Amino acid sequence: MTKATLEERSSAITLSDMEIFIFPDLMYSLVLANIMSPRVWLWRDDPWFDGIERMTPYRRIVRLKQYLMDHYAFNLDLDTWGLTTKQREISRFAPFIDSATLAESNALFGYEGDKYYFDIDIRRHFGLDKYDTDTIPYWKTETVEAMDAFRHRPGYSTGAGECVSLSTLYAAALFIVARIPLNDIFLLATPLHSQNFVDVDDGVLTNNRRIVTKNMWFNGTALSAQARRALENERVTVVAHESGHVHTLYPEATMDRAAYNRFSAKLSGFLATDLTADTLGNFLRHNTSIQKCFQVRWPRHGADSYIGVEQVLAYENSCPYRLSDRTRPKLMQEVESEEFSPNPLASRIVLNDLEDFLRTEKISILDGPGTARLKERFATSCLNAEIAIESLRRFCVTRPRLPDTAGKTFAPSSTPLGLDVEMTREEVIERLGSLRDRSRTADLSFYAFRDVLSTDAAPFVTAACARSPVSLTATADMDLPDVLEKLAQMPGDSIYDGKGRLAQPDEVWNFGRGDGVEKALLLANILHNRRPDEKVGITCNGNKVLVSSPAGEYHFECAKGIVGAEWVVEPKV
User: Fold this and answer.
1) At CA 38, angle to CA 189 and CA 182, rounded to 5?
2) What distance in Å separates the CA atoms of residue 122 and residue 128, rounded to the nearest whole number?
3) Of the candidates 308, 324, 449, 518, which lies 20 to 30 Å from 359 by C-alpha distance?
């Protein structure tokens, strides 16, 4: 195969953040690999999903969300998959992208986003500040098997994964368990986040383990503020769909244009709401800096009393009632009587009066004359009306910075994936297998699936011996006999089910287990990097695996059904 093909196919195995950005087909290939995995299909048998087929699509998604919340943690330990260097990665990807473009699109190469991210020091927020030299962490995406295997690591009681891992698992589970058609699932990647938009009802966003509805997006809570962060402050670099992808960098879009237009319109509608009295209350909850400029008028013992909005909102933390909905009377009953003032608070806007104005005037937040009248109502020495209204406008309407399609050529595949929610797992695998010579995404999915019996093994061996730094670092001070003893002590079960599906060396090391052929690859990685001028061979013959090198021969037991395979790790040039 060509060097470019080797890079792409081996990238389908390591699935780093950088690789997915360079080769955008990989994102959906991982979705398909998770769909082929027996793991997610077993979820259907969990009692938690009993009767799910009788639920509405939204209720199915909610049920799935809780399952993910219970079984997976969000993990962003940047050291999990080891370290590389900026120069090494830039050199590797030089044939595909220049370093300046990479720096604009990836946090590991300098991206820090808009003003918001500078304000919160995004590199420190993500733990990137400790990598202040040429050294950077691999930021890898996990398959569902690797996510499940985190429970074998100290400190984890469940599975775990980072945002791309969770978004691709969500997409697979939406299809398999919630029976949401793939046509209605869109994956969005920004330089620092990955999430999905599901075209159900008004729309649903998956955000790491959680989901966000349109009402949640505008409820002003801390969780919604966190969910809003990426789309408010970053541009979307990749949109992936069953029909293909649209990438901010590449001039050719492989996604169906009608599907992309539908997605763009639905997402824009999801991110916009009318300015109402309820929206205003949610905005005040969201924007803590201007709460001090508002007060609530409330009747007590036959006379009006007044209280600062920030004081009322503080009570929301300890009860189920809200200032911005019909439960306000119950919330106000929770407020201690000494908190109220018999007189209006100086320089503060009376929230009740502004709410009445919005109910009668029906102001459009995007309308010039309407906002002029609204500005009069915001007039107070406590705040700058221009700034307040602009903040309110941004709260009500988020304009997603999707890839610009003006200069792109849409060239969707003439062969649809054709996967249906009524298919069995076996039918899905058969269908994807039949498409491999016509669909790059389908072909790459088998590499992401880690099946060396149905793929060329060279990409797997290349990834194993070029991008597995964890096992190298962990064994750096160990003599070879000590390494062999450590491997012998590990349980012999693979984290990947079935014949021919293999873990990479760092997965074996991180999760402390592996089949004999997986341990053999880990050993080959160590031998190759300790004596880079020597060739290492791996021979698989049924239940026996032999690793041979000038340093010696090493034998392992194998249960992966690999017969007659001879893999060579060539000396480094």
Assistant:
1) 40
2) 8
3) 308
Identity of the residue numbered 230: A
The pTM score is: 0.93
Per-residue pLDDT, 101: 74
Q: For strand 349-350 and strand 294-300, is the pairing parallel, antiparallel, or unpaired?
A: parallel
- Kindly give, in sequence order, each residue whose CB lies less than 8 Å from that of residue 415, ignoring residues fewer than 6 positions away: 435, 438, 439
C-alpha to C-alpha distances, 175 to 168, 211, 241, 263, 530, nearest whole angstrom: 11, 16, 13, 18, 45
Q: Which of 171, 166, 192, 190 is nearest to 182 (CA)?
A: 171
Do the beta carbons of residue 224 and residue 217 sit within 8 Å?
A: yes
Contact 547, 520 (CB under 8 A): yes
298 and 429 part of one domain:
no
Identify whether residues 262 and 328 lie together within a single domain: no
> At residue 353, what are phi and psi to the nearest 5 degrees?
-70, -40
Residues 296 and 349 sit within 8 Å (Cβ to Cβ) = no
Are 369 and 413 members of one domain? no
pLDDT, residue 110, reads 61
Q: Is 52 helix (H, G, I), strand (E, B) or coil?
A: helix
Nearest by Cα to 111 from 120, 100, 119: 100
DSSP, collapsed to helix, strand or coil, labels residue 28 as: helix
Question: What is the distance between the alpha carbons of residues 99 and 134, in angstroms, rounded to a whole number?
Answer: 14
- Domain final position from 382, 416, 448: 448
Residue 73's beta-bridge partner residues?
160
Residues 436 and 301 in one domain: no
Q: What single-letter DSSP state applies at residue 402?
A: P
Q: Which amino acid is at 213?
A: T
Structure tokens at 459: 């990409």
Q: Does 299 lie in the same domain as 258?
A: no
Range of the domain at 133: 3-272+401-448
In the predicted model, residues of the chain with pLDDT beneath 70 are 104-123, 125-126, 128, 131-133
Residue 258: DSSP 8-state: H
The reply to whether 36 and 94 lie within a common domain is yes
Question: What per-residue confidence (pLDDT) applies to 378?
Answer: 82
Structure confidence at residue 521 (pLDDT): 98
The radius of gyration of the chain's CA atoms, rounded to the nearest angstrom, is 27
pLDDT of residue 119: 56
453 domain-assigned: no
